[in-house]
Design brief:
alpha/beta, Rossmann fold, seven-stranded parallel sheet, 10 helices, 7 strands, globular
């Protein structure tokens, strides 16, 4: 899988999701492993990888920083060497995001349940449609991220995505704004590894992977005895 995690709206948790997905897929143990491309100028994914390496001795995946056309070059060069490539494209309409859309087979658009985020979806949907002209295999997904624990805002935002953006396949359940995600990121850990375990966060990450098409047998490997005991 070559997956770009991106949105032209910043602050919707793209890097956190990209890093959690990279760690989870690294547990599959498939030949080639996982390449995480940090295309965000802020370098959050690279910082996460460094923290993870310092904490665990190794990240379990490979992380490189690349901008714009360098993203394309990395994917073209490395696609045969890795089972999965995850691209953290950063916010705004930037060259790294456009490059990721050009070479990915899937794009994940995190959307927060706030008005400004749903307004920005029109621009993101237009970018995906434009990229699909030259990359017709591109599949587009959306997930409600940083969702509220309760209230009607989540359901309202999901309804907007379903009705106004049919080209974005909505993944459920939503990913709730949980301290476990920020605590894990600060320690270089995914929510699968964080102690004490947060079953809600774990379930949401596994649901996200399922929605992206990770096969059931691979899910069993990802959520194995080792991660269950974390």
């Amino acid at each position: 899988m070559i997956l770009t995690v991106g949105n032209i709206k910043g602050g919707v948790g793209k890097s956190t999701l990209a890093c959690n997905i990279a760690v989870a897929l690294s547990f599959e143990g498939k030949g080639g492993g996982v390449l995480l491309i940090d295309g965000d100028k802020q370098g959050s994914a690279a910082d996460f990888t460094q923290s993870r390496t310092e904490a665990l001795g190794e990240a379990g995946f490979t992380c490189v920083r690349a901008q714009g056309k360098e993203v394309v070059n990395q994917v073209v060069t490395m696609r045969s060497k890795f089972a999965h490539i995850i691209i953290d494209a950063g916010g705004q309409d930037n060259p790294s995001l456009r490059a990721g859309l050009a070479v990915s087979d899937r794009v994940l658009v995190p959307v927060a349940p706030r008005s400004f985020e749903t307004w920005a979806l029109e621009g993101m949907a237009a970018l995906i449609e434009e990229a699909s002209i030259t990359n017709p295999k591109l599949e587009a997904f959306a997930v409600l991220n940083l969702a509220f624990p309760r209230g009607s805002d989540n359901a309202q935002t999901q309804e907007i995505i379903r009705e106004d953006y049919p080209g974005l396949r909505l993944i459920e359940p939503p990913v709730v704004q949980r301290k476990a995600f920020s605590d894990g990121a600060g320690q270089g850990l995914s929510v699968l590894e964080l102690k004490p375990r947060n079953p809600g966060a774990i379930g949401e990450l596994l649901g996200l992977l399922t929605g992206l098409g990770v096969k059931q047998n691979d899910m069993k490997v990802i959520y194995n005895d080792r991660t269950k005991k974390a």
